[in-house]
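Continuing the batch. This is chain 6 of the set; chains 1 through 5 are on the previous pages. Same settings as before, nothing changed between runs. Recording input and output for traceability.
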Amino acid sequence: MRVVKFSASLFLLIIFFYVFNSKIGSIPPIGKFLSPSTGIWQNEKDEIISGTIQIDGLQEKVSVKYDDQLIPHIFAQNDMDLYRAQGYITAKHRLWQMDFQTLASGGRLSEIIGKKALNYDREQRRKGMGFGAENAVEKMKQDPEIVKYIEAYSEGVNSYIHSLDASDYPIEYKLLDYKPEPWTIKKTALLLMYMTDELCGYDNDLGYTNVLREFGRDRFDLIFPDFFDVNDPIITKETNWDFIDIQMTEAPNTEQPLDSISDTLKKPDPDNGSNNWAIAGSKSYSGHPILANDPHLGLNLPSIWFIMQLSTPQHNSFGATLPGALGIVSGFNNYIAWGETNATRDVKDWYKIEFKDDSRKQYKYGETWKNTSVRLEEIKIKGAETFIDSVIYTHYGPVTYDKNFKGNGKKVGYAMKWIGHIGSNNERTILDLNTAKNYDNYLEALKHWDAPAQNFVFASTDGDIALWIQGLFPNKWKEQGKFLMDGSQPENDWQGFIPQEFNAHVKNPERGFVSSANQHPVDESYPFYVFNDHYETYRNRVINDFFRSKDKFNIQDFKDLQNNNYNLKASELLPYMFEHMDGVTLSDEEKELLNIIKAWDFNSDVDEIAPSIWDAWWKTLFELTWDEFDIENEELKRTLTYQTIFLLKNHPDDKFMDILKTPEIETASDLFLISFKEAARQLSEWKSKHGEYNWGKYKGTYVGHLLQALPAFSRFDLPIGGDRNTVNAADKNHAPSWRLIVEMSSPPRALGIYPGGQSGNPGSKYYDNYIDRWAAGEYIDLLFMQASNESTGVISTQTLTPKP
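Output for chain 6:
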């Protein structure tokens, strides 16, 4: 019996150690996770930001000054040491984030998460993320200096990785039970591809094609005009384009396929965008130009941005960096300031591919057959066998949809041609902006930027302001790429690119300001084809009207504008709805809601109830208006907000205003009443579950950890106003991800804030310490040091020295 008891006890002990040191399903190995020596408790330590550290490869000593916001100010004697130190310091605070985002970009999440990430990884591989990153590496190799800098950055990251014991790994590695791998130049390229996909990976070709097939050409043109009837473009309407002297691409006489694909790739958020503007000294309270930038992206912890100062005796820059990439992306130096918004141009097109036979080794192209190639995508899966996806490549790009993935025929595929695959040397642009001293330097830096297309705003201590819409843009014939194209017709291929000097731009305009908010870049007079592919229509008009409203502006004006909650969209529709909605059948409760929203001043402020009513009403109205688009197994692109409102007001009896399930509902006025009653019902239901529905609570803005399954590492119910159509474009999980204001004095003075914190460690007081101030519309003064021996505002110094 004693032997049996002993054997049973031993068995249970073995099971205990196995369970506590093994990953079971999505549960981490609890023993490792809770270990006092290597587990989560080790991550409660504050960052060490003082002392001396020896780093491989340094040529000279580097001084890193930390201020009270945990912002590192790096002072090096040369660029190689500067970027090596940038890599080390960034990894020190954001290693897991850098690593995870590149795994996500390259379609490798199955390696750490398991089978549930397989479909995501396949999509990443089939959209050619790795292919594009490899092309970017080849492009960067044509610039040996950039390669040297990225290699130095990578070696800095790896120096930090090599200094870690398992107990020092960021907590997410312990949760997912894996370890960091060495940083490489390809990882930097994958990070930049991640941003390229987020900012120019959106497309509507297949959705537009389905709408065209279902409703016909006349109806399509009514829903999707190339220009709205109101247009306040980035480059003003009075611009003279006579300097453009090249021939436009003529439209070929080719047949358009009307194929349907029911299930397409998940698209980036269509509201990924931003605001930026700059005013000339003539409109500034101080006589100095002032520049502002606030990129609108998904809200994550750790934050997408990491603030740094990067300084050598030759240059000195400050601003927001992307962890994993070199230099300051949005910021300033002693001479210039710069920032970006998304240009949202159509640079991804789809081609129907006709294979010669089931082998898919050749495809039709004109009168010949072109050879395909195959890229074997080996997707490693944690706890399972490796999945191999054979992706066919044509000269257009990857055949994303085929018989093996969301396609609809053995001898038919659909290939993607995307500017993101071409390869870009964006790091050259960023580093040249970091060291630029004037407008000519800024313009020269932009010439290296291909994708994602961005609106680069500029201001300088010389007094210049400017804005260039920069990217590599195909010179398309009218409507090329709006719909699915026949890949067998060579005329449908891109015939060339718009020369960089003909990209739309403006310098020192007479009106005294430049601005962009993802609106249409130009008016109809611009000679190259640019159609209205989900351009913004409200924020830009509020911004431009603001700068037309008076002669002089100060820093407080800039703060107020970045935090402006005025809802122009609501102001343009609600009065019409009030006038044309018959409220006779409204209940007392519904009448109370109607009275509240009628008294609204159209500011979507956090404590107001009216914005919640508007949000529920508008979303319901939009869905009812476009119920014709609810066709099972078919992706149909619905029209944009502005055109929907235009149709409701100007075509109230159009047949789109009916409700298919209720034939007697035939007008916009009917829709107003039905949608209001449904919104009231939804709000009542929400109130019964959650209590009062003021806008801040109803909207529920949150900043989620990159692993969305970790609510303990996230922040919820943030008290912030605005919505996606206000200048303060704060939605549920999408908002201004970085606010910057720079006055171009000598040296410049700057303010900034972002919804996060400098540390990637959830146990650090610097993990989310900016969030509450960001939500309240507050800023921090950015300490722009001019020399490494300054001590004001510095709380600690860390010295990086060469290894002997």
